[in-house]
């Protein structure tokens, strides 16, 4: 059996196939395996999420229901046990996120690599595949870019999507699948920073906001929100909660909808309590100019744009402020709106949305409905989830199913 792509899905497929008695060759076009996995979770590798299966599916908006069978066959407990049995103890953090105790993604990659070696899997790097070969409509092997061919009874395609191309995910799998007659749905970035229209955002570059609530407006109607940390960049906004909302934002941007983010800078305070807090600060700094009277409430970088957006002269002394001006500041702090003009490029996305259509894949086995002996796993499939370990869990579950069934069906 041949596995194309040594990412999380491909390596797990190779492990499970070898455990079930297959002679496995794992082909990777990069110089080393698991390159993308080694940088996930800011180098810590959020390997899964400890929530129940229903919650995991809910957090995979891109065809999560399709994964119902494979998630039950190889679930998050199986993933945690796999790594613990292979020398990587794990821990559960906020939001049920599961990380290696060492906080090192390289330990996760290393454990999978060691397991592959113990099982006798033949790992060949710098081997770019261009075609899956068939005989009488069934998988028979692969052809490399060099022209070499390898024969096989089954082939698992697990080459990733099109995000982070420097790690080897350059969309090759879509071309290979199309040659076999498979449909590839529109591919677009998911879990990606967002670009904004407002010029003042550029001056906020590098500013991180913690414990804020951000809502996503589509044509003026709030459809979802999240709480946590975000950060300003020269192009717009990024950070955990922005990435979580970006998948939905990107989808609506593709449809030509108006997309806005509304930031509540003080979610713990009602407008009335925030106004009272502001009045206390203003009493404290009553003889100062407004530009010097918000230091206790806002990061220094945010003071100038907030005053400007409230249409207040920054030189105006606090004791001269009207109630209407004060309430405009309160309104801004509770509802700071940004116009989203687009996403950052695919190369900056953590995950690819879209891919090989799930309608043409057997949900239990991950085998192609069009070409027997061909299996798909990982980001190359039209599956994508939110941050929190959901994407890696999906990859491991798909890989495990493809690896097992490629042997059992044969």
Overview features:
FAD/NAD(P)-binding domain; 6-stranded antiparallel β-barrel; 2 domains; alpha+beta; Helicase, Ruva Protein, domain 3; single chain; 5-stranded parallel β-sheet; 410 residues; 12 helices
Explained architecture:
Helices cover 32% and strands 23% of the residues. The protein is of the alpha+beta class and 410 residues long. It folds into two domains: 2-189 and 349-408, FAD/NAD(P)-binding domain (3-Layer(bba) Sandwich); 193-343, Helicase, Ruva Protein, domain 3 (Orthogonal Bundle), CATH 1.10.8. The strands form five sheets. Strands 12-15-14-13-16-17 form a six-stranded antiparallel beta barrel.
Summarize the structure.
The chain has helices spanning 8-19, 40-43, 53-58, 68-73, 76-85, 105-118, 172-179, 240-254, 271-284, 300-309, 323-334, 390-408; strands at residues 2-4, 25-28, 48-49, 90-93, 97-100, 122-125, 129-135, 138-144, 149-151, 155-157, 188-190, 194-196, 208-218, 221-232, 236-238, 259-264, 336-343, 351-353, 374-376. It has 410 residues and is an alpha+beta fold. The protein is elongated and about 85 Å long.
Task: Set down the secondary structure blueprint.
Blueprint: E1 2-4, H1 8-19, E2 25-28, H2 40-43, E3 48-49, H3 53-58, H4 68-73, H5 76-85, E4 90-93, E5 97-100, H6 105-118, E6 122-125, E7 129-135, E8 138-144, E9 149-151, E10 155-157, H7 172-179, E11 188-190, E12 194-196, E13 208-218, E14 221-232, E15 236-238, H8 240-254, E16 259-264, H9 271-284, H10 300-309, H11 323-334, E17 336-343, E18 351-353, E19 374-376, H12 390-408
Parallel strand pairs: 1-2, 1-10, 2-6, 10-19
Antiparallel strand pairs: 3-5, 4-5, 7-8, 8-9, 11-18, 12-15, 12-17, 13-14, 13-16, 14-15, 16-17
Helix pairs in contact: 1-6, 1-12, 9-11
